[in-house]
Write a structure and sequence with these properties.
86% helix, Acetyl-CoA carboxylase, mainly alpha
Length: 22
């Protein structure tokens, strides 16, 4: 697995999670 791809996936999940909380 590419670390860059994993980091991008984590960022997307965090962004979606934050947007849901707000």
């Amino acid at each position: 697995m590419d670390i860059r791809k994993i980091k991008k996936l984590i960022e997307l999940v965090e962004e979606s999670g934050i947007s849901e909380l707000e």
